[in-house]
Amino acid sequence: MLRRRLNRWFGGEDRRVGSRTIYVGHRPCPANEVFIPPKFCDNRIVSSKYTVWNFLPKNLFEQFRRIANFYFLIIFLVQVIVDTPTSPVTSGLPLFFVITVTAIKQGYEDWLRHKADNEVNKYRVTVLEDGRRIQKESEKIKVGDVLEVEEDETFPCDLILLQSSRDDGTCFVTTASLDGESNHKTHYTVPDTERDVESLNATIECEQPQPDLYKFVGRMHIYKNNEEPSLRSLGPENLLLKGATLKNTQSICGVAVYTGMETKMALNYQGKSQKRSVVEKSINAFLLVYLCILVSKALVCTTLKYVWQSKPGQDEPWYNEKTLKEKETNLYLNMFTDFLSFMVLFNFIIPVSMYVTVEMQKFLGSFFISWDKDFFDSEIEEGALVNTSDLNEELGQVEYVFTDKTGTLTQNNMEFIECCIDGHQYKYRDASSEVDGFCVTDGPMNTVQQKAGREREELFLRALCLCHTVQVKESTEQGQGQDGRIDQVDGLMVDGQVVPPLQEQRGFIASSPDEIALVQGAMRYGFTFLGLESKTMKILNRANDVEMYELLHVLNFDPVRRRMSVIVRSISGETLLFCKGADSSIFPRVKQEEVEKIRMHVERNATDGYRTLCVAYKHLTAEEYDQVDSGLREARLALQDREEKLMAVYNQVETGMNLIGATAVEDRLQEEAAETMEALQGAGIKVWVLTGDKMETAKSTCYACRLFKRNTELLELTVRTLESPGKRREDRLHDLLLEYHKKTVQDAPPAKTRVARNWSSQDYGFIVDGATLSMVLNSSSENNLHDYKDLFLQICQNCTSVLCCRMAPLQKAQIVKMVKNSKGSPITLSIGDGANDVSMILEAHVGIGIKGKEGRQAVRNSDYAIPKLKHLKKLLLGHGHLYYVRIAHLVQYFFYKNLCFILPQFLYQFFCGCSQQPLYDAAYLTMYNICFTSMPILAYSLFEQHISIEMLLENATLYRQIGKNAMLRWGPFLYWTLLGVFHGLVFFFGVWFLFSNPALQDNGQAFGNWSYGTIVFTILVFTVTLKLALDTRHWTWINHFVIWGSLAFYVFFSFFWGGVIWPFLRQQRLYFVFANMLSSVSAWLVIIVLILLSLLPEILYVVLRKPRGPYARQKLVQSSAGGIQSPRSSARPLLMRTFSDESNTVS
Predict the structure, then answer these.
(1) 404 marked as binding residue
(2) Is 611 annotated to bind ligand?
(3) Domain of life here (predicted)?
(4) pLDDT at 520 over 60
(5) Whether the model pTM is above 0.70
(6) 130 an active-site residue?
(7) Is residue 693 annotated as involved in ligand binding?
(8) Alpha carbon distance 323, 463 (integer Å)
(9) Considering 158, 179, 404, 667, which one is annotated as catalytic?
(10) What are the Cα distances from residue 531, in Å, to 66, 175, 468, 509?
């Protein structure tokens, strides 16, 4: 950081604001110029947060930013400075424990990051210097170094490809560690550089580092002997990214352009914004309440103390005269000091150890998701992944699910179904069929009736074989005939017979499954793509003749244009442009008389749920091509606004095309997708589908997933519905919104009458497209459209399902943000599998990534990752439900047991003249939260199952009972607080009633004040622990061990602490107090009676209340059918069955 600032001040990198200049091999260009090497950052990767020197101060600073830790630090300092009734150890030791545990956890995690950094930075690489190959550590690479990378090695920094061992000047890489895509990507060398890299004199001018993996703008100046430097454009196809791996290429040479923390990989690994769960917000609210209670207690006691001391003789009794210094002290200073002392005395009402317990519960509880065998997928041999454990309980509070369609609801496994050429349908099936009035005979195309004409059919199939970015994966075992022609390819007629497809002989590599499906579809009808060699594309036609086309330009696909094109030249010199893309993108750019005969098939295929693409072509004259070629070259050399300039050229050439036909590709539903969606809706979760696909295709998918049902009335708000003669779009939009709002909101029955989905009431589905959504979201108050967003949101919230089609990635995030920030702040969840879903995954409260076929970018940016959509059901309805119930009980229980703990201390002040006399010994104050009561609640919060997971999955409606933070609202909080007050009053006044008898021991001696406090503390520990035992529904050996073990440890510790004279204690208040107390029958009696009295109301409530909920109804059905018990209830102890099985729903 210091070095970067010095560079900035003294002419460093920031003077090159727009671009940077790199000297290849650090050679001056031209050779007679003075060479001043520019300064860039080194190649060290630093992902760690701490160093040895800054760990302690930095970690302490971060931990004390938490309010509870800072509060206890202040209390500890007050105890040290002011003469308080309790030892500083009582608050210092718990604080030290919390800080130490958290520091060890964070230190260990950072040590792992350091270890990973060292592995990367010490990796040996080959650098070419002065004709020699030198081995260096990766961290010593500088910008401008020429590196050699061999097959299966990882690129150590971002490189420009200069030379490849392949004859065609290409190389193949995989970027699985960057975006998760395991397919091979093709990269190209810079022309005129691959022959002699070591003597190359060139400079590279490129943009400053930026994180977009798929964008790069630059140009290379190549200097030759006394000649004008030649310019070569550089794009993402020339850039090899750090973290990618070289495949199917023996070796390459490249020059380093970005190193270290300026590589695209490092820039993409910036930390995600911290997401806070609703439980954490509830904890903070409850803390404020208890802080107010604490301050109130301290104020009351301070006031009463001075009221009592104002009476004659009370301020300075004869046995406790004040010193001269005490008499001279300011009264208000004394009052403030006493107030602080009372704050210290009562500060244990704030549960500082709760934060550690919550963190441990979240961290350990997350392993149950990773270990769940039901989440393991045998295809990819992976299970679920937890990227953050801070949101476990949020899985039980989801109200809205936003899901992608392709790869999430569907498998993203494309299969070519049919095509349409000039309005005629072609299907490849095993038998003849009659479809839409067209007689289709199946098999290779040369046996199909020539509906569209042979020339048009072949033109269409050539377009499929040429308009793509597919690479052929070569096989050494591929059979060839004597004449060198390939004998066996998929679906060809050889010697009059159909050769069966041999998938193992020819494989294809592509970034999208759609492209492979189209190329394989062309193979079925006799046109086979053979590969790309030295800018020459080869295809094998049905006559087994090889056709060759020179690839002139590729106009890449992008989500804005929604199409891609290639410009090729045949052997005869004819220049052709082939284009494929979405119908909305192609139809406006072709001759309109050709559209109608294709549109019917496109709409029918979309209704059937198929993905459709339209195919067009255009003949380019020599003048047209020269104009396009010069425009593309000029745009590609531009450093500023290259994307916009390329887009202008693309739009110029992709007009006036001729429409040939369309394709239909099927993407099948994910396994159990319909059942999962139905279960989520049964749980009260509203599902929104956000997709970039066609409306008809997405609508049919929603019907297949049961998001839309036959009785669902669909409300459509799309560009098509906005078209109305004589009306502006804005006016029509306003009318439709008001109409839909009246139907769904104003005329809908009240919310209380439609708690569950009722088939007699009308269900609504809402469909909106991206263009209309832009009008709604970008509405301005100037045009009186400021209420559009509110109307739109209310309509959506009153529909059972919402479909948003033709959506850009940014619009997906905008939708999620709009719902997330709406009234009530509902908990949102986004789930997707591709890079276009990352924005909505990051925006939602909980982000789920699917380990699909579109790469792992969604997984890397998600909070949780699952192999299949079907696993979402158990993740939410099972794990999410249990996580929320567990942590909600943990939070309420912590506040309850601390109130029970400190209330007797407060009441004791009324009987000791508010003299700040502690009721409990310092050891009890210190160890109450750390040792005596911490482990049982931790075990409960990890293993509790108030309802079995099987029952939660069978009865999705149980998920609704905990919705909207039901267990951490003010009602349950008040119940737990009143319960704590009741128990505290029973503990204190029950023992006080016992002590009304002056002689409790056999020898007639009276118990002292420490015996009083010890009896209260014993009842307290046993009561709060047994209360938790009563709440436990699912017993494991760990629960038994920690509950009964904690009680045994308390008894053992009390005997041990009071039975030994400790030399380091100035005063030993509990010496033999505990043993002496247990020698009294009266003490035994009062302990047992008060414990039973405290727990009696809850025991009676649990035993006498009637069973409720679906689980209870199922028990009645089972008992009437023969008394079949659930497997878990029969395995429990009889006593616990009495208390648990009768109350299996959350009230």
Answers:
(1) yes
(2) yes
(3) Eukaryota
(4) yes
(5) yes
(6) no
(7) yes
(8) 104
(9) 404
(10) 61, 22, 11, 11
